[in-house]
Every structure is written in C-alpha cells, then in structure tokens.
UniProtKB/TrEMBL annotation:
It holds the Pfam family BBE. The keyword NADP does not apply. Belongs to the oxygen-dependent FAD-linked oxidoreductase family. Residues 1-26 form the signal peptide. It comes from the Eukaryota. The keyword Oxidoreductase applies. Keywords: Oxidoreductase, Signal. It comes from Dichomitus squalens. GO terms for molecular function: FAD binding; oxidoreductase activity. This is FAD-binding domain-containing protein.
Length: 592
C-alpha cells in the first residue's frame, strides 16, 4: 500500500477533507492522521472505522455475489444458504436481480482476478447455474470485487472517500450499475463508491443551465447517477416526453453511459447521450462539488461528454434534453439461415444501411435478427424503405413485422427487453466504428462485405446502427463533446464477442483476449483513422487515445485530467491520463 504525502495534497482537497472529517473531530480523526503518516498497515481497520462514521455508517464490506452457493469462502468452511442460492441460480442472468447486488457485475469475469493463475473468483456456470461443478468443494474468493464500498447518498460521502484515499493511499473505484465491459468499475483492494442509490428524477420544461443567461432554455430531465434506463424511459413517457437512451433496462443513465458517449437506437436522429447532456453535477477529484455546463467549467463539461469512466470525477446527477413523445415505426425481421444466407444477408445490410440511416432508422442486428426503429417515416414509407430486407427474409420463410407503435416506451417494452444483450455470461467485446465510405461506394461495400463473410466462421458481428448520422450538434460550447469525431461519419458500430467459461484457465483467458483482438484488428486495418466506442471497446484496444477520442480531443482531455486529478485518485483502465497497465489498480487485468 502506498501512503500519500499530505504535503502533496492540493488546497481544495484539503478543504474538502477538513469539511468531510469535521463531524468526527474528537472521535478519532487525529488517530487517523497519525496512522496515515506512519503507514496504515497495522491500523487499517481503525481508518475504515473512522471513514464509516464520516459517511454515516454507509461503509460496507463487500461479499462475493455468489457466496450463498459455496461451502468454502476465502478458505473458510461456511454453511450453504439453500434458499438464497436457489434465488441466485434462478436469476443468474437476470439484470434486474444482478443490479441490486454490489458484488455482482453484468460481465462477471470482472468479479474475478483474471490475471491470477487459477480461477480467483466465485462464479457459477452461466450456461447452467445449477451445475455443481462450479461450486461444490470450490473456494469462493472475492477476486476483483472491491473490499469495501460506500453506499453513496451525499456529496460529502464522495468527498470523504477522496480525502481518505489521498490520506491512506487506499485506491478508489466507482461503480454504478455494473455494466462495464472493461473492468473499470471493480478493482481488487479498492474502496468503491457505489452511486446506485442516487435515484432522484425531475423534469423542467424550461431549464437554464446554472450561470447561463435566461434565454438559454431546454426541456430537460435531471436524473441522479443511479437511475436506470427503464426508469427514465417510463418517467419521460409519463410526462409525455421522449428521452434518448440505451438498449438495455438496467444501464445507469447518468453515469458511465453518457460519460463514455452513450449510443441509442434513436441516436441517428437525436444524437449521442453526450450530445444531449446540458449540465453535470460532479465531485471532481480535488474534492470540490462542481457544476459543469456550456456557461461554467466548460473544459470539464467537454471532458464529461465522452471523456469517460470516472476519470474526471464522481457524477451525482446530470441533466439531459428531451424530445416530444412521438410514434415510431418498428421493423422486426428474423429467419433461419442455411448455406450462404448469412453472408448474403450481411451483404444486403451493407448495401442498404446508408439509405436506412438517411431514413432515420436505428437498431441492432445480431446474425439473422434485425430490430430497427425510425421516428421519421410513416408506416407505408417504412415498409418501402425496408423492402429489400423484407423480400430477403420472406424468401426464407422468416418472420417480418413492420408496425407503428405510439411511443418509444411502447417499442422498448414490446421488443427491447426481450432482445437486449445478455448479462451473466462472461462476455468480452471488440468493436469498430465503420465509416460511411464503406456503405456509399461499391469498393467500400465489397470490402466490408468480404471481411464480414470471412469473420462469420468465428462469429456473427453484432451491429449497432446507433451513430449520430443525421444529428447536427448544437452550436458552440453547447455542442462540444470529447468522443472521437469518427462517430460523426460512422454508419455502424460493429462488435464481435468472445465468451469465457467460468472455469477457464489463465491460458484460456489469454487465448480469448488474443483471439478476439486479432479478429477486430482486421476491422481496424480496414478502417484506418476511424475509432471505437470507449464503453464497448476491446479491453486491449491498441492506441486507445486515438481510437476513443482522437488526438485533438485527447490533448484537451489530458489537460483537464491533470488539472483536477494530479494525485490520480480516480484513474481507471485506459481512461484519460492513466498511468498505464502496470499500476497496481489493475492487478487483476491480465497483461497480455
Ligand atoms: C448488456 C449491456 C448493454 C449495453 N447497451 C448499451 C447501449 O445500448 N448503449 C451504450 O452506449 N452503451 C451500452 N452498454 C455499455 C454501457 O453504456 C457502459 O458499460 C456504461 O458505462 C454502463 O454504465 P453502468 O452504470 O452500468 O456501469 P458501471 O460498470 O457501474 O460503470 C461504468 C463506468 O462508469 C464509471 N461510473 C459509473 N458511475 C459513475 C459516476 N456516478 N460518476 C463517475 N463515474 C461513474 C465507472 O467508474 C466505470 O468506469 C451496454 C452494456 C451492457 C453490459
Ligand atoms: C499520535 O502519535 C503521537 C506520536 O506517535 C502520539 O504521542 C499521540 O498520542 C498520537 N495521537 C493519537 C490521537 O493517537
Ligand atoms: C459501518 O457502520 C454501520 C453502522 O454502525 C455498520 O452496520 C457497518 O457494519 C459498518 N461497516 C463496516 C465496514 O464496519
Ligand atoms: C452451520 O450449521 C450448523 C448446523 O446447523 C451450525 O451448528 C453452525 O453453527 C453453522 N455454522 C455457521 C458458520 O453458520
Ligand atoms: C429472481 O429475482 C426476482 C427479482 O429480484 C425475485 O422477485 C424472484 O423471487 C427471484 N427468483 C427466485 C426464484 O428467487
Ligand atoms: C501460481 O503462481 C504461484 C505464484 O507465482 C505459484 O506458486 C503457483 O504454483 C502457481 N500455480 C499454478 C497452478 O500455476
Ligand atoms: C403529448 O405530446 C404530443 C406531442 O408534443 C402532443 O401532440 C399531445 O397533445 C400531448 N399529449 C398530452 C396528453 O399532453
Ligand atoms: C407517408 O410518407 C410519404 C413520404 O413522406 C408520403 O408521400 C405519403 O403520403 C405518406 N403516407 C401517408 C398515409 O401519410
Ligand atoms: C417456405 O414455405 C413454403 C410453404 O410452406 C414451402 O413451399 C417452401 O419450400 C419454403 N421455403 C423455404 C426456403 O424454406
Ligand atoms: C470446466 O467446466 C466444464 C463444465 O462444467 C467441464 O466439463 C470441464 O471439465 C471444466 N474444465 C476444467 C479445466 O475443469
């Protein structure tokens, strides 16, 4: 454990620290300061006890999510809890269940210490959670789950944690709903800030960002960091508005999602979440609670609009523009492929996707399944636009529905909750933003179709048509985001995936990462100068600064990081300004 030197603390942090610890003066803070200057090893728990008082008893020790099924936990024999284990097994791949548990991550390899040469975690077999081989006689370990977490309720909780980290050298992680694909919300031996409980939602039909002149107004919804997609969709619908958000029920709306960019299947018309956020309230790593928008802290605001992860602070709430409630046309197509069907299908998709993007369609394609939506067409125009795909699917006796639904919520509830990406299996992604030239020119279409055809023997690419193709950013600072400019010219955000098994050996995990990287590398080679989506990129994305942000944005982002986080209190994997993979914070990430 590294002990920070108090002399290196910035002045604002010291003020925050004094404020945060004010309530506990005389109850042991002097002892904490004492131990911190000597090194905490011997008094580790004293320090956590003091922190616990400071945060009103909301500090908890983390436990492995799956432990009710195990009779050995951290080497100790314990009693299996049959009822809790049965509930867990029944719900192992249910996001609504997982999201309630601190120790659960949607991609559970991040609960484990993957760099370990054995299975250092506590997983069930996601393909059969009742498989006793996963838990009988197996030692359940905490793995990569943080040892402690604060159930964040107040700004002061975050300030206390930052001060604690600066004083003791205990590293921090920030978790919200646990959907991270890159292991940025867990971390062995970290103290986690769990922002899941910040659930306020409110509407303002003429919101003026703080510090702006009163003629700047937006119709907005403000959500606490812990509000999930499903809840914000329902709230918006209830006030006769539409909110633009992700393709999954339990993603946090005001946390990692918009911080990394945030795509929606309505993004082709309405932009990314980073385009639509108008104000963020955030505790920066120096301990100050700041408001960032187009009129104040503009560089921080820029950084929070795509710069990603927790690198620039802990978000307490954010405010996003809404749209009127509108009807949508939905297209749901599927068939059973035989022979060369799949390659022909992807080729057809490549040939039509530019037109579809121009028609406002956004959606997901997984092998022979397409689910798209457009707010721009009426039903007969939607039928005509989709005709080439409809003909293809009907010729193979597949199913086709093209229907109008009264609202995006109606569409989401009818189709998306059944189609959203799986959680529970140990999935890893590699992704690439595919520029329009691969859809608008004969040679581009031929090259892309050929590469997809080659890839099919490995995996069917998962296509997100969710790039801001028709969207025009607002003028000036109101429209500035830090996502890679490659988003603006892309038609598809393409991904391929790899699934680990609960009992993979270190060699098998290494092999998985290498294999996936090699496949996505072919898409990088095809599209030099394009980029990838930070939230869903390859864990080992090469040249990630250019890939996720582009060189110009990265320079600005790095300046913001250095200004607010000189002590690296809120670093994360491949986040802006990280110290690199050898930082102890990433001890469970395999070093390929
Ligand atoms: C099944 C699934 C479907 C997805 N679908 C989409 C989609 O449709 N569109 C899309 O754009 N993305 C999608 N994603 C990716 C998703 O947006 C990101 O993983 C996002 O970061 C998840 O947010 P979270 O709160 O669940 O994640 P967490 O794992 O809790 O956190 C993710 C990152 O954000 C940071 N963070 C979380 N909360 C805060 C906070 N309050 N302040 C500062 N930093 C914070 C964490 O430190 C971490 O770096 C999907 C992911 C999954 C697993
Ligand atoms: C702090 O340390 C000093 C010297 O080690 C000791 O005399 C003093 O009693 C300690 N104070 C507290 C509050 O523990
Ligand atoms: C923090 O305090 C609360 C309330 O006293 C207690 O229930 C909890 O166990 C404490 N947490 C830790 C990690 O000791
Ligand atoms: C386990 O169960 C046995 C029998 O019911 C009980 O005696 C024992 O105390 C329990 N052990 C723990 C660790 O709870
Ligand atoms: C699964 O989780 C849901 C939601 O948390 C819960 O209502 C249900 O009881 C769980 N299922 C079982 C079999 O325990
Ligand atoms: C794992 O690594 C440890 C320490 O390097 C070593 O002692 C142990 O033998 C290794 N175990 C296996 C299964 O390779
Ligand atoms: C909802 O909004 C739409 C579009 O703005 C409007 O036409 C409609 O009258 C509104 N309905 C209600 C009940 O307010
Ligand atoms: C549907 O939209 C098309 C194209 O805008 C238009 O020509 C047509 O008249 C519309 N049909 C109906 C029924 O509104
Ligand atoms: C589709 O179904 C029809 C009628 O059942 C059948 O004649 C035809 O062979 C089928 N075609 C395919 C490609 O399966
Ligand atoms: C991993 O689990 C599977 C399914 O339970 C089992 O068949 C296989 O033998 C296990 N592999 C190892 C190396 O234990």
């Amino acid at each position: 454990m590294v002990v920070a030197h108090t002399s290196a603390l910035s002045l604002p942090l010291l003020f925050a620290l004094l404020g945060a610890f004010d309530r506990v003066r005389g109850t042991g803070v002097d002892a904490l300061l004492n131990t911190s200057t000597k090194g905490l090893k011997s008094n580790f728990f004293d320090a956590f006890d003091i922190l616990n008082i400071t945060v009103g008893g909301r500090l908890h020790k983390a436990l492995p999510f799956e432990r009710p099924c195990f009779s050995i936990v951290e080497g100790k024999h314990v009693n299996v809890s049959e009822a809790a284990c049965a509930a867990l097994q029944a719900n192992y791949t249910n996001p609504v269940y997982r999201v309630e548990h601190f120790g659960a991550y949607m991609l559970p390899q991040w609960e484990t210490c993957q760099a370990s040469n054995f299975t250092n975690g506590c997983l069930l077999d996601s393909s059969n959670p009742s498989n006793p081989l996963a838990y009988e006689g197996v030692n359940c370990r905490l793995g990569n789950v943080p040892t402690h977490y604060i159930d964040v309720k107040y700004v002061e909780d975050v300030q206390a944690a930052l001060a604690f980290s600066a004083l003791t050298g205990v590293r921090l992680s920030v978790k919200n709903k646990g959907h991270d694909y890159k292991g940025r919300s867990s971390g062995r031996n970290t103290l986690a800030l769990w922002t899941t409980g910040l659930r306020d939602i409110s509407h303002d039909d003429s919101f003026t960002p703080e510090g702006c002149s009163l003629d700047t107004t937006y119709d907005t919804i403000t959500t606490g960091a812990g509000v999930v997609t499903q809840d914000v969709y329902e709230y918006a619908d209830g006030i006769n508005r539409t909110i633009i958000a992700g393709y999954h029920q339990t993603i946090g709306f005001s946390g990692g999602y918009f911080l990394g960019g945030g795509h929606s299947i309505l993004s082709p018309v309405y932009g990314l979440a980073a385009d639509r956020v108008v104000q963020v309230k955030v505790v920066t790593p120096d301990g100050i609670y700041r408001t960032a928008n187009e009129c104040q802290n503009q560089e921080l605001f820029f950084a929070l609009r795509g710069g990603g992860g927790s690198a620039f602070g802990v978000v307490i709430e954010s405010t996003h523009r809404t749209e009127p409630r509108f009807p949508v046309q939905a297209a749901s197509l599927k068939f059973t492929p035989t022979g060369t069907d799949l390659a022909d299908w992807y080729s057809l998709l490549v040939h039509n996707s530019l037109q579809w993007a121009n028609d406002g369609w956004g959606g997901h394609i997984v092998g022979p399944t397409l689910l798209h939506v457009t707010p721009l067409l009426n039903n007969s125009a939607a039928q005509a636009s989709m005709q080439p795909a409809v003909d293809f699917v009907k010729a193979r006796n597949g199913s086709v529905v093209i229907e109008e639904l009264p609202s995006y919520l109606a569409f989401f509830n009818k189709y998306v909750t059944a189609a959203q990406a799986a959680v529970g299996p140990e999935l890893e992604l590699g992704t690439r933003l595919l520029p329009s030239s691969f859809f608008s020119t004969d040679s581009g279409r031929a090259q892309l179709s050929a590469l997809i055809k080659d890839t099919l023997s490995f995996a069917s690419p998962y296509i997100v048509a969710g790039t801001p193709w028709l969207y025009k950013p607002l003028d000036g600072a109101a429209g500035e985001t830090s996502v890679t400019p490659a988003w603006r010219d892309a038609i598809w955000h393409l991904s391929i995936k790899w699934q680990f098994q609960y009992n993979d050996t270190l060699e098998e995990r290494v092999e998985g990462y290498r294999t996936l990287s090699a496949h996505i590398q072919k898409f990088r080679d095809l599209t030099p100068g394009s980029g990838a989506y930070f939230n869903e990129g390859d864990v080992y994305e090469p040249d990630h600064e250019n890939s996720y942000w582009g060189a110009d944005n990265y320079r600005r982002l790095l300046a913001v990081k250095r200004k607010y986080d000189p002590l690296h209190l809120l670093d994360c994997w491949q986040c802006v300004g990280w110290k690199g993979e050898d930082d102890d914070l990433y001890q469970c990430h395999i070093k390929l």
